[in-house]
Design a protein that fits this description.
It contains four helices and four strands. The protein is α+β, with helices and mostly antiparallel strands and 111 residues long. A four-stranded mixed β-sheet has the order 2-1-3-4.
């Protein structure tokens, strides 16, 4: 099983359509998650700081990074619960494809 985990900043929802401005990256990540969900051996997991604080505490790499850099390091992407592969911004579809060793078509976001 190859797994990517996204540790996201505190927000009221994961879709990106709430609040005063729409976050295209959140909509794209939600779409990518839906594409990956049915695939065997591949997983994309998202943890929101406000909804899943224990997930942040249980991951020593995330705890250490947040102690050193504060919440500005979020979002953080972790590969196979071990290696931080990206911080401070969401991964691109190309990066997700490389890390999960699959081919993702570019997910278009229409706002």
């Amino acid at each position: 099983m190859t797994e990517l985990t996204l540790f996201e900043p505190a927000m009221c929802c994961s879709t990106g359509v709430c609040g005063p401005s729409v976050d295209a990256d959140l909509i794209r990540i939600t779409s990518v998650l839906q594409l990956i969900r049915p695939l065997d051996g591949k997983q994309l997991v998202r943890y929101n700081l406000s909804s899943n604080p224990n997930s942040f505490v249980r991951n020593q790499s995330i705890t250490k990074l947040m102690q050193e850099e504060g919440i500005d390091c979020l979002p953080v992407t972790v590969l196979n619960n071990e290696t931080i592969v990206k911080s401070k911004e969401y991964p691109t579809n190309k990066e997700i494809s490389e890390w999960l060793k699959l081919r993702l078509e570019e997910v278009e976001v229409s706002l």
